[in-house]
Write a structure and sequence with these properties.
- The radius of gyration is 25 Å and the shape is globular.
- Helix 3 packs across helix 7.
- The longest helix is centred in the C-terminal third of the chain and has 26 residues.
- By secondary structure, the chain is an alpha+beta fold.
- It contains 15 helices and 25 strands.
- The strands form 6 sheets. Strands 3-7-8-14-11-10-9-22-25-21-20 form an 11-stranded mixed beta sheet, sandwiched between helices.
- The chain binds one RNA strand through helix 2, strand 11, strand 14 and helix 11.
Length: 481
RNA sequence: CGGGGCGUAGCGCAGUCUGGUUAGCGCACUUGACUGGGGGUCAAGGGGCCGAAGGUUCGAAUCCUUUCGCCCCGACCA
């Protein structure tokens, strides 16, 4: 029995345990313990977040958004200004009541999201239609005192990006909502290799204070859904609550139309649960902080200096082509390093020893391939770039296949209940009558929720599987995280 | 808040039921030698307020009371 078998729990037995093991062994994060419900993101985990940040930030900038920063503490009265918002967030607020050695006149809440304080400043920044649209993004931490937390998926404090925009008319705001939703979907597919369903949240699942919330939903390896990103049409709700007005071309005074949209460190959880296997983390090359781990082999008959020198040269050659390489010269045995890099999800491992030097080659092992093979040093970088590219698309198609294989259309509620009777989950496309009562009944009886009213797929009409009332299109049900 | 686990070395745990040498094991760590192509071997070391506070006792990791915290499963949510 190998050590790895002792350490990693097969996902079939206990998915949750497997997930935590991958995080721990991949050295991504650990529970903060001393801070309830929070986690410490370790360097390797944070490096993945930085890759995500950079990619998204480029996309935001390319669509005309600017980064800004707003305070972490929000006057309690701000939160109370929008009725639905306060109702939705009150239960999970952390509140600062004392500072400077005395009780504060008005408590501050630690931001759970920044619509309110940004609304306050928008009202000062916006005066004319010429100031619109105002397209702002903030990279920040937020805090929500959740009842139950899970590493990366739901932590007391988490890192995210929240976009906040103001527009002169509803139509333009709606376009922004969909534009950003599409950017999220594109990022999920092209960078994370994680296919998603875009859709509209039901009224009971929407953001507190929004008119409508859109989302991208991804399927994890156990068939459960993960809400991976959201984009909200806030209408004039916050505009009215914070008096964000502008003078139109015609001279009238109007409230702005706002949007907000965000993705969080939850994406890392999604990444883990989408691709990883029983050997640990698997990262899509585009988001892997280390794309190539080069392991030198020093042994009997090896000229250590020559191997080191050759290794440096190989690493430099790859870096020149934009490949991120770690030349791992630490004083550990090669086998130890192999396992470590594998658990950290490094896409490609190279081994370089005297034998290889003699043959002008390295040994190459892909993270998800079986064996290893020799690769000549001539044109190595191009070889690797091609492989990384292939791995990226390979991961996406594997995830897409899993999504397709676990997606079904269902017309009878009996069949529906059967699917969700055990611990398993699938994406079930079924007709629903559009009422909150039916939605609640289904959730109560099966634990499955409406993930979204999908934008994709056919829009054929039908009859609700529960009540038989008419339905204009199928909606997506699943158990979720 | 309900249900279930658990706090003993950096990590993972045994010991607790049935109190009794100097509190133990694996991994990790340090030093040295041999090693080195899939988690090395041998030898020698370092590291503990047994979660906290009270109590019972000649004697407490162990029994009693109180308390703090963590993890997992539900209800709430990105």
């Amino acid at each position: 029995m190998s050590k790895k078998a002792e350490r990693i729990t097969p996902r079939s037995e206990d998915y949750s345990r497997w997930y935590l093991d991958v995080i721990r062994q991949g050295s991504l994060a650990e529970p903060a313990e001393v801070v309830k419900g929070c986690m410490v993101i370790k360097p390797h985990g944070y490096a993945i977040w930085e890759k995500i940040q950079r990619a998204l930030d480029d996309m935001f900038k390319a669509t005309g958004h600017q980064n800004a920063y707003f305070p972490m503490l929000i006057p309690e009265s701000f939160i109370k200004k929008e009725a639905e918002h306060v109702e939705g967030f009150s239960p999970e607020l952390a509140v600062v009541t004392h500072a400077g050695g005395k009780e504060l006149d008005e408590p501050y809440v630690v931001r759970p999201t920044s619509e309110t304080i940004i609304g306050h400043f928008f009202s000062r920044w916006i005066e004319s239609y010429r100031d619109l649209p105002l397209l702002i993004n903030q990279w920040a931490n937020v805090m929500r005192w959740e009842l139950r937390t899970r590493m990366f998926l739901r932590t007391g404090e988490f890192l995210w990006q929240e976009g906040h925009t103001a527009h002169s008319n509803h139509e333009e705001a709606k376009q922004e909502v969909i534009r950003m939703l599409n950017i999220y979907a594109k990022f999920a597919q092209e960078w994370m290799a994680m296919p998603v369903i875009r859709g509209l949240k039901t009224q009971s699942e929407k953001f507190a204070g929004a008119l409508e919330s859109y989302c991208i939903e991804a399927m994890m390896q156990d068939g459960k859904a993960l809400q991976a990103g959201t984009s909200h049409d806030l209408g004039q709700n916050f505009g009215k609550a914070f008096d964000v007005k502008f003078q139109s071309k015609q001279g009238s005074t109007e409230y702005v139309w706002q949007t907000s949209w965000g993705v969080s460190t939850r994406l890392i959880g999604g990444l883990i649960m989408t691709h990883s296997d029983d050997n640990g983390l698997v990262l899509p090359p585009k988001l892997a902080p280390v794309q190539v781990a080069l392991v030198p082999i020093f042994g009997k008959g090896a000229d250590e200096g020559a191997v080191k020198e050759a290794g440096e040269k190989v690493a430099a050659g790859l870096r020149e082509k934009g490949i991120s390489v770690v030349f791992d010269t630490r004083e550990y045995k090669p086998g130890f390093k192999y396992f470590e890099w594998e658990q950290k999800g490094v896409p490609i491992r190279l081994e370089l020893g005297q034998r290889d030097l003699d043959k002008n080659q390295v040994m190459l092992k892909e993270r998800i391939a079986q064996g290893k093979e020799p690769a000549t040093l001539d044109g190595l970088a191009d070889n690797i770039l091609e492989r990384l590219d292939k791995m990226q698309t390979g991961l996406l198609s594997a995830a897409q296949k899993r999504l397709d294989d676990n997606t079904v259309e269902v017309d009878s509620y009996d069949d529906f209940r059967e699917i969700f009777s055990g611990a398993e989950s699938k994406f079930v496309w079924a007709h629903w009558d559009g009422t909150m009562e039916t939605e609640a009944k289904i959730k109560e009886e099966t634990k499955a929720t409406i993930r979204c009213i999908p934008l994709e797929g056919s829009k054929e009409a039908g009859r609700c599987m529960v009540t038989g009332a008419p339905s204009t299109q199928r909606v997506v049900f699943a158990k979720s995280y």
